[in-house]
Amino acid sequence: MKLYVKIALFVVVFIAISGILAALYLYNLKHTDMAKAKPDFIITATALQKEFEENEVSASSKYNNKILEVTGFLESLTQADSSNLSLSIKTSNDMSSVICTFATIPDPSKLKTGDEITIRGECSGFLMDVLLNNCAIILK
Q: Are residues 126 and 83 in the same domain?
């Protein structure tokens, strides 16, 4: 076999093995336990929504992919099925809220509309609502 064919074959095998190892690492990566995680920012739902509304670019660079602890009043609770629960925290803007989705489902019977609630989750951006993923309810 010619030398350049051997080198090309080695590079292809190296890239394939690297890809397989990266995929295995990402597949086995565990979510952060938000109930025990230290928040990067502690903020009210109204203040968070207002920051995104006033300057989305600045707020996105500040909060995206960060762990936030958000306090506000429960506006609505939606359970699509037994594995999907999302809740919305009221802000001062009637057209916008903070939407929280959960990795592990809390007991929805303990949650009532209008109750003050504190949620810790990872901010994933702003699309008319501020989105928090992998959330956990924080008991004070």
A: yes
Burial of 17 (0-12, 13-18, 19+ CB in 10 A): exposed
Residue 23 lies in domain: 1-30
pLDDT per 10-residue tile (average), the chain, 140 residues: 90 96 89 82 94 92 94 86 81 90 75 89 91 86
Residues 6+ apart with CB under 8 A from 99: 86, 87, 88, 129, 130, 131, 132
Q: Are residues 24 and 66 in the same domain?
A: no
Quick one: pLDDT at residue 85? 80
Q: How far apart are CA 132 and CA 66, in angstroms?
A: 10
pLDDT of residue 107: 74
pLDDT of residue 47: 94
User: Is residue 59 within 8 Å of residue 46, measured between CB atoms?
Assistant: no
Angle at which helix 45-54 crosses helix 56-63, to 10 degrees, equals: 130
